[in-house]
Amino acid sequence: MSSINQLPISKINKSNQLFSKIRSTVETAFYGNNVSSVTSIAEAYTLAKNTSGTIITDLPIFQPDKLGLPVDSHVLVTNDGKIVGRTAAARRIIGQPGINEDYYSGIIREAAYQLSKKGCRTATIGIGLSDAFMLRGHLLLPTGFEGNLYSYILNFQFFDDSYQKQFRSSVSYDEGDIYILADPDWKHPDFPDGLVLIDPLHNTAAVLGLRYFGELKKATLTLAWAAAHRNGFIACHGGMKQYQLQNTNYTMAAFGLSGSGKSTITLAKSKNKQPVSVLHDDAFIISKKDGSSIALEPSYFDKTQDYPMNDPAVAYFLTCQNIGVTLDDSNSKVLITEDVRNGNGRTVKSFFSTPDRKNHLTEKIDAVYWIMKDDSLPPVVKITDPILGALFGVTLATKRSSAENLSGGVDQDKLVIEPFANPFRCYPLAEDYEDFRRLFQQNTDCYILNTGHFNGNKITAKETLTSIDLIVEQQAKFLPFGSIESMTYLPVGEHLPDFDDPNYLKKVRSRLTDRLTFIQEQTTTFDGYNALPAEAASHVSALIASLDDALS
User: Is 70 exceeded by the pLDDT of residue 402?
Assistant: First the structure.
């Protein structure tokens, strides 16, 4: 059994590392007489449908009986108000510099007390879709937010009899169950943006003052990724798929922030009609022992901006958040998608949307693709040095998206560095760096995909997908990336770098300097919590010196 929720009396004491101040406060709230448990997906649907503010559309759920839903189930819509994305400014991680556990324990005790005066509901779910890694999770929400509880159950794996049977025979880890306490109505003068408190070593979180469903999903994944990381897995915020070729398989992972093209790349079919299996487009883990990969959740939390109402994918929507509703010419309530109402309209979409879905890939990963929006790079670059491959993951350059509730003054179009496209890491950055460096040392290839602009021209999704197909089919012809020996590039259309143009070389140098600055800043920022080995700065410095030679 992967995670623990019951202990013998002899192990219930202060020396047991499964307990903490925050965990004991949060878990205790689940046992109050104001709390009722949701025991089936059908019950969750009925509660959500009958909650004030829920919109019951006339769009039927595809194959509801196979999802545990009533046969007459329809897509439900809930809307949150002004905030329609994740609020990074609200996150606090116990164990990181400047985070006082005693102070936040008091905050959580008061929040739990306030919740004890409200009716609340809980649900139990599973995270991890292979018996090699499974965790049990519990969510508590006040009544009135059954829509989020229902979406949570659909997004993850409801802890039904079938999953419980598999869970009982799964690999055991010395990890407590995940507990998440949430109160969207919570207010505190010191936390105007709300509070997402993560206690990663004790698999506990509180999500306070935030209505957006994505906060619940990412708090859960933050804890699951951290637990996996502690137990021999690489935590991955990305998409993975596998091509079934004539004589072999090709397994690839694409890492990028929301809006970078990660889901488009992961869910795309091969132009040459090879069968393609999808592991997941957002959350998975890679075993450091044998290279296999495991999906953490069955469903997809997808943007609706690319799905007009006549798109076939709409048939697989289960719930929608922050999206408009209108009447069609049959007087049926349907969705206004494509972000007409606001940015970051979302849907929980069923696994039926990918009939070739797999939950566990036993084969070792063949390639990692870092998705960036760095205009100094052509559409596809190959990195042959494992250290440099990991460093480009550390310094993954991209742009913020509408999935994030950004603080005032933040320029959404500014190039930013988000290591490994994972803003949910709650352990030192050097540990991910070492994991990916080791992965590349074990003959996993490394590529960079620029899905933004190059030489002022937009790189299209078709160009990106065609390039990936060429790599998969071993037909890609890479050329030297100027004077940098460990980098080559794939010629794509008109997006060709000119290494004789000093202005272009200066742009490449400038971006590498930005990366070097970021790496150097980690030695002092945040009390050096995310400091990298000395080889990181020296490696990037060597690339800059190579460009300086070319410019002289």
Answer: no
Task: Give the single-character DSSP code of 359.
Answer: S
Predicted pLDDT at 466? 96
Q: 41, 181, 163: which is closest to 122 by C-alpha?
A: 181
Do residues 357 and 277 make contact, with C-beta atoms less than 8 angstroms apart? yes
Query: If phi over 0 gives left and psi between -120 and 50 gives alpha, with beta otherwise, what is residue 521?
Result: alpha
Provide the pLDDT for residue 391. 98
Alpha helices in 19-144 (DSSP H): 21-29, 41-49, 101-116
> At 294, which amino acid appears?
I
Q: Which residue has the tokens 């002004």?
A: 82
DSSP for 384-453? --HHHHHHHHHT-EE---TTB-PPTT--TTS-EE-GGG-TT--S-HHHHHHHHHHHHHTT-EEEEEE-SE
Cα(first)–Cα(last) distance of the chain, in Å? 62
DSSP state of 172: P
- For 184-226, strand residue ranges (E) read 195-199, 204-208
Task: Mark out the alpha helices in 30-100 (DSSP H runs).
Answer: 41-49
Look at residue 68 and give its three-state secondary structure: coil
Average pLDDT of the chain to the nearest whole number:
95
pLDDT of residue 552: 84
Pull the structure tokens for residue 136: 């049990």
What residue type is assigned to position 12 of the chain? Answer: I
Dump pLDDT digits (tens) for 336-347.
999 999 999 999
Q: Which two tokens stand for residue 170?
A: 């799964």
Residue 174: Cβ-neighbour burial (10 angstroms; 0-12, 13-18, 19+): exposed
User: 543 is written with which tokens?
Assistant: 């690339």
Residue pair 413/399 in contact (Cβ under 8 Å)? The answer is yes
Bridge partner list, 117: none
Q: What is the mean pLDDT of residues 115-125?
A: 98
d(CA 357, CA 359): 7
Give pLDDT tens digits for 106-118.
999 999 999 999 9
Nearest in space to 405 (alpha carbons), one of 83, 81, 79, 78: 83
Closest CA to 183 of 113, 100, 125: 113
pLDDT of residue 410: 55
Would you state the pLDDT for residue 400?
A: 55
